[in-house]
Amino acid sequence: MSRRTVFLASVALLALLTCAAAVSAEEVIRLQFWSGVPAENGPLEAVERWNALNPHIQVTYNRYVNNDEGNLRVNIAMQTGEAVDILMSHSANDYEQRVRSGLLLDLSDRLDEDYLFEKIGSGALRWKIDGAYYALPTNINAIFVMINEDVLTAKGLEVPEKLTVEELRELALALKSPEFEYTFALDAGNIHGIIQHALIDVGFVGEDGKSNLDHPNVRLGLETFYKMMYEDKTMPILAVQKATNMAPEQMFLKGELPLYQAGAWRLRMSNDLAQYPRDFTIAFCPYPYFEGYSIPGHHIEDAMSITAHCKYPDAAWEFIQWWAVEGMMALAPGGRVPAHTDAPQAEARKLIVSGAEDTYNLESLDRTYEMENTKLIPVPPYQVLDYINQEIEKYFLGEQSLDDTIANMVKFHNEFLERQ
Q: What's CA 161's distance to the chain center, in Å?
């Protein structure tokens, strides 16, 4: 073969490779992924890992602030055609509004309930709208009571595996001492949860289509908290807690509060021993439940959807599936445990307390995450929840009786149901 022939063949081969490279570059799919999780808490690391493994599908991470303004901004972005291909919804109400507005793709051809119940569990039902799923939830947002185990030990008490509402009151009383102003608290904005727990097995609406807000558990739950505030003085009065911007999470970490009802979102603080130094062991137990009824189950959140205008839904779905199992591990040090059973959940639980593991009762943490016979708490429409908050605040302020509070809630709820 002559040198000219070899040269021409080389040129042809080079041209072919250059053309192939150009074609490959053109075929790279680029997706925009939006969520409310700060990039430094794991999402950016996960996306970079995906991009390294999948040069043909490149994902860009965008963070929106997970508040009313931030959610509105991302909704407007989708409505105006701004680049949003994959969206993580953190609130069931925000998610439902997006579904109703036609902003999210129906995933019925990719997700069926048998798969979801096997891989995610019944918590996935929270993301079912009119018989269809528009998202794959990815995160176990665990809920639990954080316990100062040293205080219990000093009183000769063991860490409870579970607590009824009445047993919570008894424990808070047993821990009462001049050392503590209060022995139990929760975040003021979550106090309505006692009603959700009360209706965990019966739901907010009865078989007759009427409100269940007059269920005996609702009365028991509200009355118990009221007595803990005013009679036992083991729980801060709601009005005082709000007026003083009381921070029960900081009180707990300073050793000033032995029982704090919270969840996995507080582990970032308790892990930060430099900013929140402590010399006591934290143990865990599930949220209090009502005798004879189910234990409140963990929230299954961070629901990932394909937007309705996404040009590459198959590629987006490929990324979502990877995220649910592998990508989520990058978020574990920030307090997120993958909901998907194919993910190494036990390894993720170790990562969520990494660096501070010696300061926790890990057996109680694992037990609480793996607690059986739990059930997803019911979530009413946001209009009903807003009204519930208004009424129970009046009750806890002492402005109206328990009978009037329940009667008002039932009346409003029934009128709301009639309008639907």
A: 22
Residue 300, burial from CB neighbour count under 10 angstroms (0-12, 13-18, 19+)? buried
Q: What is the mean pLDDT of residues 277-303?
A: 95
Reply yes or no on whether the pLDDT at 297 is more than 80: yes
DSSP string, 248-290: HHHHHHTTS-SEEEEEGGGHHHHH-TTTS---S-EEEEPPPB-
DSSP H helical ranges for 80-205: 92-100, 113-119, 149-154, 165-174, 193-198
Residue 141 and residue 263 in contact, taking contact as beta carbons nearer than 8 Å: yes
Q: How far apart are CA 293 and CA 51, in angstroms?
A: 46
Under DSSP, the state recorded for 36 is S
Per-residue pLDDT tens for 158-189? 999 999 999 999 999 999 999 999 999 999 98
Which position has the token pair 């995933």? Answer: 107
What pLDDT shows up at residue 241? 95
Share of the chain above pLDDT 90, in %: 83
The rounded distance, in Å, linking the Cα atoms of 173 and 300 is 32
CA distances from 307 to 57, 94, 99, 144, 312 (A): 17, 14, 10, 33, 10
Between strands 184-186 and 259-263, the pairing is parallel
Q: What's the pTM?
A: 0.83
365 pLDDT above the threshold of 90: yes
Cβ contact 168:288 at 8 Å: yes
pLDDT of 23: 33
CA–chain centroid gap for 79, Å, is: 26
Q: Minimal CA–CA distance to 339: which of 192, 331, 182, 58?
A: 331
- Which helix (H) or strand (E) is 34 found in, with range? strand 29-35
Query: Cβ distance 109 to 134 under 8 Å?
Result: no
Residues recorded for the chain:
420
Q: How far apart are CA 198 and CA 213, in angstroms?
A: 9
155: its two tokens: 């009183």
**Which residue from 34, 126, 36, 24 is spatially nearest to 320, judged by alpha carbons?**
34
Report the distance separating Cα 70 and Cα 84, nearest Å.
14
134 φ, ψ to 5°? -115, 10
